[in-house]
Fold:
Amino acid sequence: MLSCSSTLYTKFFLTNGAPWNAVCKKNMCAGNYASDGGHQEVVNIIVDHATKCEMLLSQAILNNDKKNIVPSVVDTKEETDVSAQKCTKDEYLSRSVRYEGDNLLDGDNDAVMMEWERPLMAEHAKIICQGKKRVLNVGFGMGIIDSILQTHEPTHHTIIEAHPDVYAKMKKDGWCDKPNVTVLFGRWQDVIGKVTANSLDGAFFDTYAENHTDLTEFHQHLPRILAPGGVYSFFNGLCPDNIFFHGVACQVIKLELESLDFEVEFAGCEIQVKDEAWEGVRRKYWHFDFYYIPICVLKSRGGEGEEEGQGAGKKQRIE
Ligand SMILES: C[S@@+](CC[C@H](N)C(=O)[O-])C[C@H]1O[C@@H](n2cnc3c(N)ncnc32)[C@H](O)[C@@H]1O
Structure:
């Protein structure tokens, strides 16, 4: 952190094993200090180093025992306060959740989903479903994105949801009886094989209590289930309390998706969450006043899917 104005010292420390993501008591890492001080060259060095580290770690987790290796970009702080605790919860699916007011809460009063996300969900829906398309949503929650997707009149709409209480609500609200909807009840890890190859024009992913590795693992399925030109997006809540970590995590995901043959962009949009929105919620899980929407288009193989309309999500840049 003290070396953040010097490219020489930064390189020296990083190549000699200094952790790029160590934070001070203010939850600031060297990259935050370099960025705040306007030392762009140092920022670039740290981002480059961090991205390599995180990609290697992510691959190691995928190839080995994912339970024993923890992605450092996500879990760097000691568990001193609630905001520093891990968001992953192994027991989430076996404990009840409740719909209360504008939110869906778990047994710890952590928010599974909140109404303030509606405008973001509307943007995600627009990106993955322009016109009459075949879409997939993973994680029903409050059904916000699914309700919006229905207004786009998709030709087919598949929903994957794993929580029994959420599934009960879906049944009660008639989601299982809609003519153009298929609900797959189960963890996406267990039911994704039921989604036919090349059967989707758009896909959205937004689960709860999972981590970066689960997201990376989900991405491995996309080239099979999406048709060429298909558009993918996900709730971008990566490292939501530190802008430098957020930037590194976005870069890592971008490279991972590019290696799977996607073109990836992040479209920025402003988001304002009022303080009252968090009343009754144990942990504030969003801290920025802007949001980067991932727009990921599966490249056409051998010229397929290049007609107008295919892959149109890429053009949907939000300024
Ligand atoms: C944040 S909510 C989704 C909110 C949704 N985007 C909306 O617009 O209301 C996450 C949902 O993912 C579900 N979920 C968590 N883990 C899952 C898994 N492995 N497979 C499928 N669904 C999962 C949760 O039960 C929850 O309903």
Notes: Residues 112-113, 121, 138-145, 160-163, 166, 187-189, 206-210 surround S-adenosylmethionine (CB under 6 Å). Confidence is low (pLDDT under 50) at residues 74-79, 303-319. Residues 74 and 239 are 6 Å apart (CA to CA). The first helix runs from residue 7 to 15.
